[in-house]
Amino acid sequence: MPHAHLASARVDAPADFTFAQLSDGSRLGRWALGSMDLVPAGEPGLWRGVSLFDGSPAEVEIRPHPALGLIDFHLGPAGARVPRVSIRVTPGPDWGLPADSCLVAMTTWRAGWMDDARWQRTRTTHELEALLFKAQIETAWAAR
Q1: Sequence-separated (6 or more) residues with CB below 8 Å from residue 10
Q2: How far apart are CA 101 and CA 16, in angstroms?
Q3: 79-97 per-position pLDDT tens digit
Q4: pLDDT tens for residues 104-134?
């Protein structure tokens, strides 16, 4: 199986709005099925929640890089967090799309400890999560 997976979506909202939504931990906890109900964990950028799959604790450190349109999500325990998931937001006009749209690509890296079943679950989940964040961001943009 491949060592990385990409899930992407066209989002009908501007890139800066989309980037802000995707880098907000309180919003992440509404679409990231392995990191639901996130709350701030005391350190800047660190959030704690639970996995919707098995109720296990989830910890994610969100590191936004606005100039690059890149958000790194470092996962794992303190001292061993790695950027297993990254999201790139790129403005629609760069791709011949309207100014109030953008393209979003979520890249996920397979950890060595993941068996094939867990990796398949992660890939399937991230395909669904792209649909969820697309719908939630477009709904928020329309309601502004």
Answers
A1: 92, 97, 101, 102, 103, 104, 134
A2: 10
A3: 889 999 999 999 999 999 9
A4: 999 999 999 999 999 999 999 999 999 999 9
87: Cβ–Cβ under 8 A, 6 or more apart, which residues? 22, 70, 71, 73, 104, 105, 106, 107
**End-to-end C-alpha distance for the chain, whole angstroms:** 42
Q: How far is residue 135's CA from residue 3's CA, in Å, rounded to a whole number? A: 28
Q: Does residue 43 register a pLDDT over 90?
A: no
Helix and strand element counts for the chain (H, E):
3, 7
Cβ 25 vs Cβ 60: under 8 Å = yes
Please name the residues in contact with 27: beta carbons below 8 A apart, sequence gap of 6 or more: 21, 136
Question: For residue 107, which of 135, 137, 129, 91 has the smallest C-alpha distance?
Answer: 129
Q: Which of 30, 129, 38, 37 is nearest to 85 (CA)?
A: 129
Here the tokens at position 53 are 């799959």
Q: Residue 41 in 3-state DSSP?
A: coil
